[in-house]
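User: My instructor asked us to take a sequence, write out its structure as tokens, and then describe one feature of it. I'm not sure where to start. Here is the sequence I was given:
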Amino acid sequence: MEAQVKRFAAVVLEGKVAAALRAAGASEASLAAATRAMMHASMLGVDSHGVRLTEHYCNMLAGGRLNKDPQLVVEQRGSGSAMVHGDDGLGHYAAYRAVEVGIALAREAGVGAVGIDHSSHLGAAGAYALAGAEQGFVTFATTNTDSMVTLFDGAARFHGTNPLAFAAPVPDSQPWLLDMATSSIPMNRVLLHRSLGLELPEGVAADHQGLPTSDPELANMLLPLGGADYGYKGAGLAGVATLFSALLTGTTLDSDFIPMYGGDDRSTPRNMGHFVLVVDPDKFVGREIFGMMITRYLANLRAAAVRPGGERVMAPGDQEWAILAQRQAEGVPADPDTARFLGL
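Assistant: Let's start with the prediction itself. The structure tokens for your sequence are:
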């Protein structure tokens, strides 16, 4: 895939993304958050949620769906719970604020559970889980999205791709990081394959009848994680994201969303909900012992036996950190459509 794209220095790409959002009218605070989240995704290899989304966000800012200068409102609901009102701005801004609110709550209560309402697409959920872990907290982040994933044995869209992201601090190392969609792939991956003219892997997408297809032009919906035989697992996990992100926040159900793509409406806010949970290890076993335990756990995991033909056992995040190092050295890829939009 990357053979068809050009690479750019991260600082150049970051500057172009920020400039495009600024030209679209986004406030400095909200565009900084969006740029940070997109660069996180592009640097770690989550290209479907990286800088390629800049054009979409600019279009929504121009159309009025996204508030160019959102004024976030934080309302504490309990000793360890709060809500962040996103004011229909870029979702990255509200999500990073929720992490900071969660950390403040967790320092006092041990846990900080923060719901977000009146928000918008927030990109890669792992960006926010990582933001908490980098400050020493175990962090969970999730969101529900518009229907594009069939149920197990289903023939119509029902759940969104509904990511679940978890991160934890590791002493003297990069955090443990798991960021996964509950669909086999995100819909942005289909769009990326269309842009690059590449076939999809088998068992990740379906046509209008719910039948599997590898043709990105025919793909109308995604299959849940687990595929044809075990997709009930992914479908169930997608419901977990909806439970936290929509039901606890009183926002929009997957099937009620205005679609992210398609249609002529670029002005109606989508009232997306997200959820962040922050846990302070100091209020449980203690930060020092937690650090010793996760270090030992990861050492055991990486030393586990490898099956014949396998290369090595990796912990969640190992692949992303390897990609980060590679892209820091070699540049960050941008697909042709994105490069053209950013003037690269």
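For the description part of your assignment, you could build on this observation: The domain at 2-296+315-342 is CATH 3.30.1370.60 (Ribosomal Protein S8; Chain: A, domain 1). Try explaining in your own words what that tells you about the chain.
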